[in-house]
User: Fold this.
Amino acid sequence: MNLDQEQLRKALVSLSVESALLKIGGPVYDKVVKQLSKEYNCYLPDCYEHPEYLNKVLKKIFGNAYIPVVEAIKKELDDHIMEKPVEIFVNTISE
Amino acid sequence: MQNNLEKLQEQKSLFTCLVITGLGILVATFFGKEVVKIVTDFTYIPAGGTLVVLSFMLSIRFRSAGNHGKAWLLFLGTAISWFIAETTWTVYELVYHQNPFPSYADAFYLAGYPCLFLFSLQYLKPFKKLISKKMLISTSLIAISVLIPNLYMTFDNNSSESKFAIILGAIYPVADAIVLVPAMIGIVLFFRGEVNFLWTLLLMGILFEVIADTGFQYFTLNNSYYTGHPIDILFLWAYIMFSFGVYSHIQIFKKEAKISGSKNLFDNKLTN
Assistant:
């Protein structure tokens, strides 16, 4: 039961990141996915466990402007922000 | 490491292009005004054409989806408009042997500016929360300050040029100053990011345009402007800056083979 919940959260977080990035542009999403794979050997859903990777990739692409991207991801996760693991994820990518 | 090498290589090519263009125009000047006119007119066409091709490639890549997709479509509009303007200018000058300023070419030059401005707005839209009032005011003040020499020239001259030509000539630096504001904001926003290179080159390109347009106005009012005048080098450099900026973006967001050949990263990784 707990595992299912975690899987669901993982999917939710991944979909939220994807949705936020696709709103900027498809190639932006592709770039983030590519960079995660190239530098950390990780896929987008893995960012649920390693949000610091996503944080670093966003910073590398957008520099100082990574914050609004994080905000957009946060907005996508609005309904689940009270859940502790989601909160941890959001806080880590915001650092 | 490889990225840094690519960036360095890109900068080297950019520098080479700038030097070749500048020297080409200067050397052609030694062969007389007719030669430099032909060389310059025929340099503008590939310069503008390259920007169209690169912008088209990027628009295709972004498929007009998302904020940046729409932004690149608008940028393509600017590139096409300026390319038509350059071609019209060349036809007026080399085919009809008429003075191309003022002419229909100006309509296309000017039409490129709203597209460029809207491109910047659309590109920066997802990041608008970071744009503070202070940032907006300070960049606007810088933009206004670069306009001062041009406004001074426009209102304080005794040129034989028609009022229409003088006002038309003055509109360009005003349009440049307007597009300068989001370009400066872009540099600040994306500081340290990979996309910053595009904004740096866009800003430099627009700055070249501001100086060139002010110079064009000055030499036109003096009746000393001719196509191939050294001021034209700055217009060409602006095209080169824009083209390299767009190229850097193509490099950043280029399509690559699917990672590990997986059809859906979700399906594969979610089960792990």
Chain B touches chain A at residues 61-63, 65-69, 126-130, 188-196, 252-253, 255-256, 259-260, 265-266, 268-270 (CB under 8 Å). Residues 259-272 of chain B have pLDDT under 50 and may be disordered. The two ends of chain B are 31 Å apart (CA to CA).
